[in-house]
Structure formats: structure tokens, C-alpha cells
């Protein structure tokens, strides 16, 4: 009789650990993982600053202050850009940083050691991103409406499609970045890219207002394609054009393929 | 009076009569066997030119505890990762619960519990949230509230993971490993960074797992842990098995006894050896801690104490001991410090 056996009955009654394993239900696993990740994103002050407070400040600031020349009503040009920024903040920057630190803290290993299938591990993150983006759309859309935004109703369906494609492209890029580099480097790169896209990627300034060479590049960036597509859909109420859709799809496929090859658990 | 504290190399192993698993019983076959939870044969894992695991064979019967004991960098964690399907071996075969850990990874992971080294959780997640998430991955998990309570985590259930102490993080990791009622638990250094109470709790839990029929493969570099918990100890070094057997068998193998005592440091060991019959060795492994190796008889004992008396010295804390697992371990893996 070992020392461990002699005292095992006191805290752990006989039969406590009799094996009875099995995989949880897929739906329950998805809800549990996406729920935790969405709550973590909404609880983290830096992430909320990036995903809600800065977009809100830009929405109000650019609408009310005449720093950038825009056609009236200003909010009609500003709101689509801010919605695109919200997608970039959550799906790319916030997601990449979270993944970088999750890897550092061993959570990907931890989850990979459970019955959670690998595809669900990724799906859970994407569902969490969509949940946060949905909240952003409601909050930013409501504030924009209060500022006088009246988006073309005919374009709302196209707008949602673009937001979905934007989430796909930026999530794939975010997972690629957050899944391959060291957490501190991810933090720096994700923020620098966010800032660069904000200024030169068609967010604050519509692509057509950028200097010529930059305008060409910005139109082929996922940020430019998303923001311009949203402007076309929500101002003019029509199909945003095949170019926007193809640019977003291409970025999504290329980044997802690269991530599938390069991502590391730790 | 002698005090209860003893010289480090004299710690007495726990008596383990009656339930030892002899290493000679190991069969090289990896065919699935109803009584075997894990079977590995000739496992090799290389990183570049370094072999982290270099021809490892293991056999873990159901409802038993196997401790992989080795210095840092011996290949303990890599072995666990190969057995749990996190890595593909470069050579060799492993069957866990009759399954190939890589090819049948998803089916296998539904039946095992894993405590990775250093645990693992979202930095901002609360303790209760994390355990509920892992519990949701199982069909019939243990009650989360009870598990938190019994592992002393209720008071920190709402604290983010990154603010927990090392011991609290380890206890959460252990909870995550057992919450799904697994058939086999892989525990990589389960007591690292824990205080004595935490260690005691983990030992109890591992004893209860074994009692209830769970097979446990754990790694440790703590001799007392391996001696207290394991049915079978496998000592590994540089990715190879250097010895295996029950703790009792390992410590008895040399058949050598030793006499330990304390006295002022720097006594003349040559003179002491000359006073003893031939075949006995005298050592002073730490200043003031003396060892006489060889078969102990009343005559030898009285020779040593009277030789000390002749030097005008009182031999204190005199006792006869078998070699401890620590002695076996250091003999096999060397005394130089590992990084």
C-alpha cells in the first residue's frame, strides 16, 4: 500500500475517477470556445479601445470636423470607412495579438489536447470574430444613424456580404500573423499594419482621394477593397463591383493557404 | 538523540512490497492488448541532428502509474508528446488504448486527459471559465464546481489565468486533464512549482486515479515523487531508457547497503577505510555527511562508531539504509549539472 493510496479516500471518494470518456457535442464545444473568446475580446481594455472606442472617435470626429475634404453628407463617406476599420481591428489586429499571446500561454496546445477537432479550433475563433463584429456594426451603425447616416437600403445586403468577406480575408491574415511570429513581434506588426491601413489603405481617405500610385496599391489591398466596396454599396445602393469581391477573396485564400502551412501551435 | 532530518543521500525509499511490475515482463510486441494502456517500441524523434528520443520502449498496464524520471533535457516531454499524438515519431511505433496517436488522434484525444508542461490557458481567462470550456469538450465531465473546490481553486475561480500563482496554474491544468473522466492521463511534471500542500494533493489525486482504474504516465525529476507514486519507474537519459522497474526493484538491484552518519567535516577517510574489512568504501559526499558502502553487519557498525570514538568524535544520526532512488538515478545519469 503506498502513501498515495492510503489517503486517496479522504478527498476523492472511491469511484470518482472511474473512466467514462467521450467527445462533447460539436455545438456545445463551438458555443463554449467562441463564447470564451468573444468574452475575452470584449473584456480586454486594449482590444475594446481598438475595436470600438477608436472607430467611434473617428466616426464622430471625421463627420463633425472638416479635416478631410469629403462630399456632403460627410457621414455617408465616413461611416463605410469606419465599418471597414472595425472589421480590420477585430478580425486582424485584435485576433492576431490574441493568438500570439494565446500561443505564448499554451492555450492552443491545451485545446488541441482535448477532443475539440482542429477545424473547430479555427471555427471557434472565426465565430468569436463574427460575434464581436456584429456588436461593432450595431454600435457604430447606431451612432452613425444618430449623426444623420442614411445608408442606401438596397445596398445593405451587399454591405453584409462584403463585411463577411472582409472578416474572412482579415481573419486569415490575422491567424497567419498571430500563428507564426513571437507574441511581442505580432503586437508590433499588427498595430503598425492597422495604422498604415487606416491612413493609406482607403479607410480615412477614400481610395480616389489618395495620390495616384498609392491609390492603385490601396485598391488592391483588402482594406481598400472593403472600404470602397462598402462606400459603393451603402452610398449608391448597388453591387460593389467584381474587383472588390475578387480582391477580398484572393487575400482570404492566399492567407488561409499560407496559414495552413506555416502556423505553429506554440 | 538523532533528529529526524537525514543526510540527502540517505533518504529511505517507501516499502512497495506486493505490487511491483518487473521490467523483465516487458514484451517487445506492440499489438493491442486488453490489459495495456500504452505500448511504445523503438520510438525515435530527432530535431535536426539531435535525437530527443532515441529508441524508447515503454509499456503501461491499465490502472497503473508509470513515472518517466530523468534530468532536464532527457526527452521526457518529447516522449509524452509522441504518445499523445502531438508529434510524429521519426521511427518506432506507439499504440495508446489500441490507437495510433497521430492517425487516430481525434478518437484518441476523446479518451485521454493531458496536462501539458506548464499547463496552458488564455492569459485573460478566469479559472472557472477555462475549466468549463475544457469540460464542454467531454461527453460526461466531472462536476466543475466540485473539481474546483477539491483542488482549492474556488477562491480564485474568477481570477484571470495570468495572475494565478504557479501552483494555482498547475492545479487548474491538472483539473483540465482529469475533468473528462479519461482512461489514460498524461501528466507532464504535475507538481512543478507547487508548495508541499499542493504536492500532497496531487499525489492523492494520482493515487485516486490509479485506484479507480485510470492509467497514468507522468514525468518528474523528483525521486521521492517517483518512489511514492509509481508502480514502475523508467529512468531515461539522452532519450534512452537507462533503467526501469518498480522503485523497490531499482533500489534493491545493486544489493548494496550503506551506513550514513554525521560528524565534523574533514575526517581522514583513508584511515577509516583501513579500519574496515576489505571491500568497504568510505565517502564524504557532503561536508560532515559520511557514507560507508558495503554489506552492513553489527561488526562493521561497531567498527565505525568506535573508530570515530578513537578520533574523539561522536558519530551522530547513524543509520543503515538501502540505496535510494536518488542514488540510483545519479549513478545512472551522472552528477554533472544539466542546463
What does this structure look like?
- Chain A starts with a helix and ends with a helix.
- Chain A is elongated, with a radius of gyration of 22 Å.
- In chain A, helix 6 packs across helix 7.
- Chain A is built from eleven helices and no strands.
- Chain A has one domain.
- Chain B has two domains: 236 residues, Rossmann fold (3-Layer(aba) Sandwich); 68 residues, Alpha-Beta Plaits (2-Layer Sandwich).
- Chain B is built from eleven helices and 13 strands.
- The relative contact order of chain B is 0.17.
- Chain B starts with 35 loop residues before the first strand and ends in a 6-residue tail after the last helix.
- The N terminus of chain B is likely disordered.
- In chain B, the strands form three sheets. In chain B, strands 5-6-7-3-8-9 form a six-stranded mixed β-sheet, with helices on both faces. In chain B, strands 11-12-10-13 form a four-stranded antiparallel β-sheet, with helices on one face.
Helix content of chain A: over 70%
Number of domains of chain B: 2
Give the number of helices of chain B.
11
Major sheet size, sense and barrel closure of chain B? 6 strands, mixed
Which series of helices and strands of chain B comes N to C? EEEHEHEHHHEHEHEEHEHEEHEH
For this structure, the quaternary state is: heterodimer
Q: Quote the distance from N terminus to C terminus of chain A.
A: 41 Å
Q: What portion of the residues of chain B fall into strands of 2 or more residues?
A: 25-35%
Which bin fits the share of residues in helices of chain B?
Answer: 25-40%
Number of helices of chain A: 11
Ranges of chain A where pLDDT stays below 50 over 5 or more residues in a row are: 1-9
- pLDDT averaged residue by residue of chain B: 84
Order of helices and strands of chain A: HHHHHHHHHHH
Looking across the biggest beta sheet of chain B, what order are the strands in? 5-6-7-3-8-9
**CATH fold descriptor of the largest domain in chain B:** Rossmann fold
Decide which structural class fits the backbone of chain B: alpha/beta
How would you describe the shape of chain B?
elongated
Amino acid at each position: 500500500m503506498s502513501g498515495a493510496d492510503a489517503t486517496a479516500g479522504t478527498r476523492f471518494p472511491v469511484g470518482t475517477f472511474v473512466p467514462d470518456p467521450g467527445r462533447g457535442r460539436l455545438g456545445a464545444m463551438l458555443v463554449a470556445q467562441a463564447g470564451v473568446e468573444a468574452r475575452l475580446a470584449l473584456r480586454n481594455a486594449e482590444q475594446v479601445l481598438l475595436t470600438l472606442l477608436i472607430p467611434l472617435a473617428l466616426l464622430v470626429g471625421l463627420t463633425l470636423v472638416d479635416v478631410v475634404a469629403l462630399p456632403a453628407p460627410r457621414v455617408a463617406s465616413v461611416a463605410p470607412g469606419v465599418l471597414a476599420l472595425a472589421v480590420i481591428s477585430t478580425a486582424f489586429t485584435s485576433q492576431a495579438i490574441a493568438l500570439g499571446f494565446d500561443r505564448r500561454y499554451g492555450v492552443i496546445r491545451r485545446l488541441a489536447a482535448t477532443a475539440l477537432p482542429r477545424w473547430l479550433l479555427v471555427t471557434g475563433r472565426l465565430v468569436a470574430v463574427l460575434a464581436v463584429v456584429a456588436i461593432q456594426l450595431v454600435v457604430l451603425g447606431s451612432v452613425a444613424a444618430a449623426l444623420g447616416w442614411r445608408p442606401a437600403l438596397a445596398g445593405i445586403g451587399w454591405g453584409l456580404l462584403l463585411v463577411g468577406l472582409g472578416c474572412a480575408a482579415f481573419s486569415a491574415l490575422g491567424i497567419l500573423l498571430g500563428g507564426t511570429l513571437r507574441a511581442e513581434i505580432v503586437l508590433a506588426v499588427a498595430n503598425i499594419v492597422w495604422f498604415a491601413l487606416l491612413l493609406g489603405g482607403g479607410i480615412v481617405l477614400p481610395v480616389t482621394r489618395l495620390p495616384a500610385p498609392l491609390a492603385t496599391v490601396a485598391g488592391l489591398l483588402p482594406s481598400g477593397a472593403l472600404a470602397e466596396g462598402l462606400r459603393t454599396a451603402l452610398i449608391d445602393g448597388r453591387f460593389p463591383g467584381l474587383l472588390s469581391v475578387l480582391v477580398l477573396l484572393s487575400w482570404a485564400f492566399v492567407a488561409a493557404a499560407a496559414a495552413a502551412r506555416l502556423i505553429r501551435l506554440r | 538523540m538523532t533528529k529526524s532530518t537525514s543526510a540527502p543521500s540517505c533518504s529511505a525509499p517507501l516499502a512497495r512490497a506486493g505490487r511491483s511490475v518487473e521490467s523483465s515482463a516487458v514484451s517487445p510486441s506492440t499489438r493491442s492488448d486488453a490489459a495495456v494502456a500504452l505500448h511504445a517500441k523503438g520510438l525515435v524523434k530527432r530535431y535536426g541532428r539531435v535525437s530527443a528520443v532515441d529508441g524508447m520502449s515503454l509499456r503501461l498496464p491499465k490502472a497503473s502509474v508509470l513515472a518517466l524520471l530523468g534530468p532536464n533535457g532527457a526527452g521526457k516531454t518529447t516522449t509524452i508528446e509522441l504518445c499523445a499524438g502531438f508529434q510524429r515519431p521519426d521511427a518506432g511505433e506507439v499504440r495508446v488504448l489500441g490507437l495510433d496517436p497521430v492517425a487516430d488522434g481525434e478518437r484518441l484525444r476523446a479518451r485521454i486527459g493531458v496536462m501539458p508542461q506548464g499547463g496552458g490557458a488564455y492569459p485573460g481567462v478566469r479559472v472557472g471559465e477555462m475549466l468549463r470550456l475544457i469540460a464542454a469538450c467531454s461527453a460526461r465531465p466531472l462536476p466543475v464546481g466540485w473539481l474546483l473546490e477539491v483542488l482549492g481553486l474556488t477562491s480564485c475561480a474568477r481570477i484571470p489565468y495570468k495572475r494565478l500563482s504557479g501552483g494555482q496554474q498547475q492545479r487548474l491544468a491538472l483539473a483540465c486533464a482529469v475533468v473528462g473522466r479519461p482512461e489514460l492521463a498524461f501528466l507532464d511534471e504535475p507538481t512543478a512549482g507547487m508548495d508541499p500542500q499542493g504536492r500532497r494533493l496531487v499525489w492523492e489525486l494520482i493515487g485516486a486515479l490509479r485506484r479507480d482504474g485510470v492509467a497514468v504516465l507522468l514525468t518528474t525529476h523528483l525521486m521521492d515523487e517517483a518512489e511514492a507514486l509509481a508502480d514502475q519507474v523508467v529512468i531515461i537519459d539522452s532519450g534512452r531508457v537507462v533503467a526501469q522497474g518498480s522503485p523497490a526493484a531499482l533500489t534493491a538491484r545493486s544489493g548494496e547497503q550503506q551506513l550514513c552518519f554525521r560528524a565534523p567535516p574533514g575526517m581522514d577517510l583513508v584511515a577509516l577505510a583501513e579500519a574496515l574489512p576489505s571491500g568497504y568504501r568510505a565517502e564524504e559526499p557532503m561536508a560532515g555527511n559520511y557514507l560507508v558502502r558495503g554489506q552492513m553487519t553489527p561488526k562493521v557498525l561497531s567498527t565505525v562508531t568506535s573508530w570515530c570514538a578513537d578520533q574523539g568524535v561522536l558519530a551522530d544520526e547513524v543509520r543503515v539504509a538501502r540505496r535510494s532512488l536518488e542514488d540510483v538515478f545519479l549513478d545512472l545519469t551522472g552528477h554533472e549539472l544539466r542546463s
